[in-house]
Amino acid sequence: MFLVQIICIISVSVNSFLYFCGNNCNVELSKMNNLIEHTGVVQAKQEGAVVVLITQSSACSSCHAKSACTAADKSEKQVEALVLDDDIAVGDVVVVYGQRKLGMKAVFWAFIAPFVLLFITLILLQQTELSEVLRGTVSLATLIPYYVVLSFFRESLKKEFCFYARKA
Description:
This protein is an alpha+beta fold. Helices cover 43% and strands 25% of the residues.
């Protein structure tokens, strides 16, 4: 039962983090010496920003035997990124990059904080006479106000968690 709760938390956390990624950033490029980079293709262009399709694949998805294997995993994500030069067009291959330390901060808000909240709630509810199913349900329900409060800070999170794109 506890493992199912953990899987639900991770799923909700990843989707919530992706929801908060935006393009209105306050990050200085001079501080971006430790970068996370991904290659993608520009799907749409807006004023000062582009929507980039990033294909993420597991190590075995490029294997020649992947059609016979069920372990192959490949997913696509759309990311909105700021552009500093206007010569990027739809269909161009670009590198999307952002600060590594912001990735750690995102992991904290998307995984660690909700897990700690869930775990503390579960421990506190162990002292009650509620059934295990009800304790698990109430623990998971504590994540609803967490994400509601987090959504109130959406605009400030958009300014902090941002990505940039440059031609590859």
